[in-house]
Amino acid sequence: MRLLKEKSKATLDVDILNSDRLTRKGNLKSAPVADEKELQANIDLVFNYWKKRGFPYYPTNKQWRDKEFEKLQNTDISSIIKGDIITSNILGSSLAFSFMPHHFKIRCGKMRTPMEIYNNEEHFKKGIKKLLTGSFFPKQSVDDLMPISSNLFGETTETTPEKKFRSESIMRALLRRYTGTQCVSNFRPTAAAALYKKFCKTGDTVWDMSMGYGGRLLGAILAKVNYIGTDPCSDTYNGLVELRKQYGNFNNKYKLLKQGSESFLLDQPILDFAFTSPPYFDWEHYDDDDESQSYLKWSHIGDWKLGFLFVTLNNAYRGLKQGKYCAINVANTKHYPTFEDDTRECAEKVGFTWVKTYKLQLSSQEQGSKWEPVFLFQKRNNG
User: Nearest Cα to 77, choosing from 187, 218, 192, 194?
Assistant: First the structure.
């Protein structure tokens, strides 16, 4: 799974009208606050509202999900890949995450999780203050953060679904981007669908070695290919099963397996495409109590490289038909600075031939385009 904060940062769309309120790094300075007591009262009001209301998960109602799926279906997938660039289109990402509420609790390295910020009164209130004063985050009003109205009898009701969703989005962004916090990310369904369509025909069979949070499964549904996926995390597996149940195509097959990719070996080459974004060794702690997790089975990068990465690529090579392709999305990080070279080395050792490298564009709040590689390998006829 890709890292989020180190390689991309989720942001809210905002027009900055006053350039004098920008810090040297481009963040928003605090707006003047006339009454500190009033500010503190508003912080407490918003905090108590969200603690009573509960964590701002993505919506799970069928109406919202169906609407998001319809948007994804209406996306022009043919325009996603331009030359060697896989352009950024986040449609479908929220839908996939709506099946994965546990992802807010998954720890990345030593960073705090969004759920930990929500459960920590001091940090959550500090974050709410940033929203109300316009410090780092775009300034919000109490009404923006509490989409409710009161009648003459003091009874409160939520306002429109649009305002409700906007307030939830603001709070999710706060909890994901609070200082010292990092949240796991998801491979974009549109990018996955574009790659499937480029290298597969309708009805072909693909293997997603590390299923993750549903981005590639949604892409497979969109591309109308048969999908085999492996992932040992129970919560993730359960979410994927529900996603398949709600949106899988009747004419396609989806084989979801709760196991690691290193233990999945096909008896014969039936795959038309293999494609994934593997774990970044032990950066994301999916389940510290599940000994089948690769970072628990191999506690050192060198051992993990041989026991997980090499074996997974070897299994993909053996399972692919001759002439077919394998795409791997990885990127070097401070935590694993040789991940890209290690991936290419392992792929070539098992018999793959490197063909090209795509550039996966990442969303960013900074100017300029950020990207990470998607390596494309082929099982040549002499393999």
Answer: 194
